[in-house]
Design brief:
mainly alpha
Length: about 30
């Protein structure tokens, strides 16, 4: 279960990173 929790945290971080990148792109363009 520890691996699953780590994977979930990694996916959540990736989602936040992509969302932030998209928001930054909208601001610059």
């Amino acid at each position: 279960m520890e691996l699953f929790s780590l994977l979930g945290a990694y996916l959540h971080f990736g989602y936040v990173f992509v969302a932030g990148l998209a928001l930054g792109w909208l601001i610059w363009h």
